[in-house]
Amino acid sequence: MRVITTIEEMQSTITQAKNSGQSIGYVPTMGFLHEGHLTLIEKARGENDVVVISIFVNPLQFGPTEDFSSYPRDFEHDKWLAEQQGVDFIFHPSVEEMYPRSSSVTVKVNERTDVLCGKSRPDHFDGVATVLTKLFNIIQPEKVYFGTKDAQQVAVVEGLVNDFHIPIKVIPVETVRESDGLAKSSRNVNLLPKEREQAPVLYQSLLSAKKLILEGERNHEKIISIIKEMITEKTDGIIDYIDIYSYPMLEEIQLLEGKIIIALAVKFSKVRLIDNIILEISEK
């Protein structure tokens, strides 16, 4: 495994691989790797000749009230994990390497961003789309892998790839969970012990909503109410949102039919957790 820190070396390395007929699979990360990331890497390893991961904490996607400097980092541990998973290259550029000067062009996301997490983070997905456009051009993969825990991000990336005709296949990979159902996340380390005990209720509430729908319930308010009641009664978290939209367009729907997402975000004392389930509803 090789660590690459410059754009020039990364592009040169990819060119050599492509010239020899090798396929490239890519997993973008901000580091502090956990089992969710490793599942993405494992999927990429099984489908490609060369696997590249990037470890880059992107300042463009942090809002003015979000602390870029406090995002968890442990590059040496990340490097060890990546090597165990059979990663070929880690692209680990500095902020100065990725943004050596003020950008003359950035990407503006117009759809799928004014709901869910995007509602309270107005410039977040512009930052995500801008850095991914740069990374896609640097690494030039055939396939790129994202976890569906951040389903809104997957929807935005699919829109980016489709609208700009980027020759990459986006591979969504199901959320990896702890044994008690909590979605794995780099931010889980910030939960207090009591909050960690309570956090699985988020997924339990989504499963309760799914059960209602499968049993025939179609009332939005009732479904959201069940989720809200469980979280309020069984956790100390403050609900940021509980929403139901079409997926991947993330548009409001009058009827619960087709492919939908039920998504939520809950704020604990030091961390905000997100989770979701995606369902395909077919009326008989």
TrEMBL record:
Active site: H37
Family annotation (Gene3D superfamilies): HUPs, Pantoate-beta-alanine ligase, C-terminal domain
InterPro entries: Cyt_trans-like, Pantoate_ligase, Pantoate_ligase_C, Rossmann-like_a/b/a_fold
EC number of this enzyme: 6.3.2.1
Catalytic activity: (R)-pantoate + beta-alanine + ATP = (R)-pantothenate + AMP + diphosphate + H(+)
Keyword NADP: no
Pfam families listed in its UniProt record: Pantoate_ligase (PF02569)
Domain of life: Bacteria
Record: residues binding beta-alanine: Q61
Pathway, per record: Cofactor biosynthesis; (R)-pantothenate biosynthesis; (R)-pantothenate from (R)-pantoate and beta-alanine: step 1/1
Subcellular location as annotated: Cytoplasm
GO molecular function, one term: pantoate-beta-alanine ligase activity
Keywords on record: ATP-binding, Cytoplasm, Ligase, Nucleotide-binding, Pantothenate biosynthesis
Complex formation: Homodimer.
Additional information: The reaction proceeds by a bi uni uni bi ping pong mechanism.
Family per record: Belongs to the pantothenate synthetase family.
Record's function text: Catalyzes the condensation of pantoate with beta-alanine in an ATP-dependent reaction via a pantoyl-adenylate intermediate.
Protein name in the entry: Pantothenate synthetase
Gene from which this protein is expressed: panC
